[in-house]
Design goal:
Elements lengths: L2 H9 L4 E6 L2 E6 L2 E8 L2 E5 L2 H10 L4 E3 L3 H4 L2 E5 L5 H15 L2 H6 L9
Antiparallel strand pairs: 1-2, 2-3, 3-4, 4-6, 5-6
Amino acid sequence: MRTEDLERRALSLPGAIESAHFGKRDFRVGKRIFMSLPEAGRAVFKFTPDQQKMLIENEPCICAAVPGGWGEKGWTSIYFCDADEDIIDNLMETAWRNVAPKTFARTQGQPPASAP
């Protein structure tokens, strides 16, 4: 998957906009960030700590907790270049649901996901 594909998919989610945080591009709903792009080939997604734990157990080749306190809060690095596109789509939607207002989350047809 290319960075451009990831960007396009992020911006296709209801209410998603592109912005910046600490000089890095991010994607958010309102003021809440669901994904950032800190460097080539790596995105950082907002998960709950439980979602992160499950993801690291199930997909250890494409993800890692962000070091320090951010990682303890669920922020997770996703190495997307060689990852399955369906997995990335699922993870991105989960991260989006974690921050989107419930009215947006309902427009996707299901209640917010509890795990990736």
